[in-house]
Fold each of these.
Amino acid sequence: MANVEDNLFKNVISHAKEYGFIFPSSEIYDGLSAVYDYGQNGAELKNNIKEYWWKFMTLLHDNIVGIDAAIFMHPTTWKASGHVDAFNDPMVDNKDSKKRYRADVLVEDAIAKMEEKIDKEVEKAAKRFGESFNAEMFKSTNPRVLEYQKKIDEANQRMKDALGSGDMAAMKQLIIDLEITDPISGTKNWTDVRQFNLMFSTEIGSVAEEANKIYLRPETAQGIFVNFLNVQKTGRMKIPFGIAQIGKAFRNEIVARQFIFRMREFEQMEMQFFVKPGEEMKWYEFWKAKRLKWHLALGLGTENYRYHDHLNLAHYANAACDIQFNFPMGFKELEGIHSRTDFDLKSHEKYSGKKLQYFDSEDNQNFIPYVVETSVGLDRCFLAILSKSYKEEKLDDGSERVVLRLPAPLAPHKVAILPLTKKDGLPEKAMEIMNELKYDLRCFYEEKDAIGKRYRRQDAIGTPYCITIDHQTLEDNTVTIRDRDSMKQERVKIADVKGKLIDACSINNLLRKI
Ligand code: GAP
């Protein structure tokens, strides 16, 4: 990570804590690694992101319904889904630093370094050749670039083979051959690579026996699969249709760092779309495009999103891609879109002995539907929005401010109600206005400190509008509305305030942009 971005990320993290967005979990006991609590402003922002997603899925698509399945599920669920046997990460320890790493991440980082070297060669050549430079031609002919590319392709292929066959010795050999060193100790003193299952387990009931072992769900999707027929039958759903869910998921991540990007307890917003076999690629493309539009409507910048197709497909998928976001630590996965075939339903049929098929009355036939899944991390959405909204600005008068330019419909508070002074009946008038607005807009009331200071505090938590009640208000029933981003103020009739603010702050209006 470049230094500027590194500092920016640190500032975002401390801002999130200072202003009540995110706290380390159980901080008074020094926290718990990779677990975080959302504070009073964080919880509001998070709820608004959920509402934006939930309404998009279930209001704007009349063939998608939402459920709320339990976190605990019958343990056979996880056998059927493949998580008991295959939800593993390869891990390796450095014997000198005693630090643990994901072996595939070490290899991916080494590959990324080689890719950076190619980029540098291209940059140098572009400077040398000027306007006539053709980057593609250069990459396909320059011997040094070709050498790097060959190494990259070989490393990718060897990793794919090793992970695919579960050959951890081959994975270790790859780490040795790529001469990967531990970033902390600087040595190549690695242990063997071992598989590590990411599921948390606990016991249900009072007797701690193997038979009572259950898992904390590592994805919400399985709660949807096991309820597929319940929902289809009781909702009289016709294929194609979707089931959406927002809920907690748990993974005992080996490398849990980068703040809320990779946590051990996190939240997913998932939707399984059940389609006719053979039509899955059409729907896969459909949902790829739709989900990107949902992200883009937030206005965080088109350039900050990109698709990343999976080359190494999981055994159950016939197509998969990520929507990556330009986080402070670079482009990383924000959402996954997967064509999961009929793998999950078929496997649940096998393990449960219950038929999980759809009867198509038009064709008069039963079939197991294929599934296209959209799966986005709520916390990663939060991080994407928070980190891109965080701005340290120098103002014309030489002063500085930190502002969260959050999309107004997602801001924890939509409007701050600020009487200019604590006397002359201004607080009473301010309360009157707030009582009128509070049913439609989350308001923040404050009368302490100079108005400039109060504006800054609202900037820091991303409140898009401040209403100031002054002596003129008592005379002509007008207030000033200050815009967070432009800092411009305009005088508006009290009667017009509500309409104006609802327009700018409504999630429904945001949805209309998609
Ligand atoms: N049902 C499919 C599934 O769970 P995934 O790619 O493993 O797929 C989906 O996870 C999304 O969940 C990711 O794109 C990411 O946004 C989020 N996610 C996964 N692991 C996470 C973690 N440890 N912390 C925070 N978010 C995570």
Amino acid sequence: MHAWPASEVPALPGKGRDLRIHDTATGGRITLDPGPVARIYVCGITPYDATHMGHAATYNAFDLVQRVWLDTKRQVHYVQNVTDVDDPLLERAVRDGQDWTELAERETALFREDMTALRMLPPQHYIGAVEAIPGIVPLVERLRDAGAAYDLDGDVYFSVDTDPHFGEVSGLDAEAMRLLSAERGGDPERPGKKNPLDPMLWMAARPGEPSWGGASLGAGRPGWHIECVAIALDHLGMGFDIQGGGSDLAFPHHEMGASHAQALTGEHPFAKAYVHAGMVGLDGEKMSKSRGNLVFVSAVRRDGVDPAAIRLALLSRHYRSDWEWTDQVLADAVERLARWRAAVSRPDGPSADALVEEVREALADDLDSPTALAAVDRWAALQGAEGGTDEGAPGLVSRTVDALLGVAL
Ligand code: 5CA
Ligand code: ZN
């Protein structure tokens, strides 16, 4: 699949700081040392509805990760998937009487437009589940041959008990896992499983659903977790730097993915850090396609809101906190954007050298974007109150905000 166009990232004077980031697996902050090419996998959308502010907030967090890395003069190798065949997508297509491939293509196209408007850096590899199937089939076969997977009435399950590291990503106990598994696409109640938590690797063809010939597996389609594992191993290999997504992916998705990969390769870990963004809510509930309480990026754009203001709204909350999208969050961002634009529109101003370092330090410190915004607010306030004589300052502020926060002033 093709991704979306990249916006330029201006180079800043000096050098950025190494990223310290909260890792779900260790429960603490770790300093990543990625080497010259940092590797990141971010779980993509299931394209059955438009991009909402929760999605956008999560992708914003991982966009900041890349901007911090680029500022340290590293290259970034970024991979993202599109879950373009899965239960919710097929169910929505049936409900609305439309072709599931058309639904997936339309919503993926809209996602690309939203990401472009928000100036999110594109992945180098943007891979659909369907196009990954030829690579998924041999992985499922290998797991079965190795005794890490088993058949149940034509479906193939992964045996979580074959991975000694199972449970290390989420750190949850068995009961919590069981509850979340039932809530998030698993089937802990299905009789005949070795462990109720075992996830499906390959689902035998169901009547009326698309399927692919899987040689020894029989016609069917891939399970969710193996999709991301196949794509990540193919394009990044084991031990990449960050596996990213919203906090609802920590269990089961990232836990199971790590186990699949560890069982396949005999190596550990799958990713050096598992990084999770908080959930954005609306009216007291998590914003979700299944609940339907959504604020779409495209709808807000259609209302004439500058995408830069949407981006500032996302940046105004720390990526790890759960927060509520409100009209006020957006109104504050619109006002801030106008203030910042006025401040950089003058030819000179107070020195911005310290500001560059403040923004760098805030983002390197577990992507603390609210602190970064506060630093720019202070410079803009000083510009408004006293101005300054530094001729390069407004330009440097623009480039800093552009390079590190993805906002064009
Ligand atoms: N296709 C899978 C990942 S392989 C999937 O979870 N798709 S999704 O469309 O449901 O979600 C895409 C990303 O947005 C995931 O990282 C998910 O954790 C995140 N996300 C979904 N809802 C919210 C929300 N309300 N707040 C923050 N992030 C969210
Ligand atoms: Zn995923």
